[in-house]
Specification:
Blueprint (H helix, E strand, L loop, with lengths): L1 H26 L9 E18 L8 E2 L9 E13 L5 E17 L4 E3 L2 E3 L4 E21 L3 E20 L5 E21 L4 E14 L2 E17 L2 E21 L2 E21 L1
């Protein structure tokens, strides 16, 4: 549902600002190469490494979902995003991006695991899912901007609905589930570089760390991309991303975080995408 809402919202915003932005572009004297609006979509190829520990007071073993539950370490997903620059100087910018990992597996356990105080013994056949979505929104301000470089500082929010489910059917059927949404505010730096009128290099890093009562959270997201624009309003790009997040919590001291245990997610991925801009 969140995926449909996010994609619909992005398309609605795009359609709403398209005529306004086109009109503004016709009447501005802006001469720098930084576009007013862009939307991009493509395939993201990720290598994942996820670990989960759920239980009261951190009880239970750390579950490596790839090794213990047999989930694939590689995943390909659809990814969509866009940005819009506000004002004639184009120093204020808002970004929105969305993608979704949906993973599942079936395996006979080789060891005992404990999920939310439920024990699944070695030799048990289990079905497992580990899904998480990432919706990123950010505002940035370009503190330096000329015809070759656009350097900006940003503040944003990662919204991450996470669901981890382990189910044993048949004799002794049991189920355990971890489900919550992690809203993580982030600070960041962004650098865009015009190598030539058609070639661009993009870079961005966003980070977050917080210790609050019984909650500890940390996030680091690094993006690098090269883009080529063969036509006036259309381009293609290739990007690399390194994403790491670790959450440790007991109870609901942090908004929307209501679980006992630890979640550690990491992926390194490459993206091929097409972009429309003006």
């Amino acid at each position: 549902m969140l995926r449909k809402i996010s994609v619909g919202l992005l398309l609605a915003v795009s359609l709403a600002i398209l005529p306004l932005s086109a009109h503004a572009a016709d009447n501005t004297v802006y001469k720098l190469p930084w576009e007013k609006f862009n939307v991009q979509a493509g395939a993201f190829f990720a290598a994942l490494d996820d670990k989960v520990q759920v239980g009261i007071g951190g009880a239970g073993v750390i579950i490596d979902v790839e090794d213990v539950l047999g989930m694939k370490a590689h995943n390909t997903v659809f990814r969509i995003g866009g940005s819009y620059r506000i004002g004639e100087e184009r120093r204020h910018r808002v970004d929105l991006e969305y993608f979704y990992f949906n993973r599942s597996s079936s395996k006979t356990l080789g060891q005992d695991i404990i999920v939310d105080n439920v024990t699944f013994g070695a030799g048990t056949n289990v079905d497992a899912t580990f899904n998480f979505q990432i919706l990123k929104a950010a505002y940035s301000y370009s503190f330096f901007q000329d015809d070759r470089m656009d350097l900006a500082a940003s503040i944003g929010l990662f919204v991450m609905p996470i669901k981890f489910d382990v189910n044993a059917s048949g004799v002794g059927a049991k189920n355990a589930e971890l489900k919550f949404t992690a809203p993580l505010p982030v600070l960041g730096l962004r650098g865009d570089f015009a190598i030539t009128p058609r070639w661009y290099f993009r870079s961005k890093v966003e980070f977050f760390y917080l210790e609050y009562q019984n909650f500890t959270g940390g996030l680091m997201d690094t993006n690098l991309a090269v883009e080529y624009n063969p036509w006036k309003n259309f381009g293609i790009g290739f990007g690399l991303e390194n994403f790491r997040v670790k959450l440790s919590a007991e109870g609901n001291d942090y908004p929307k975080i209501d679980f006992n245990g630890d979640v550690k997610m990491q992926f390194i991925g490459a993206q091929l995408y097409a972009r429309y801009f003006f």
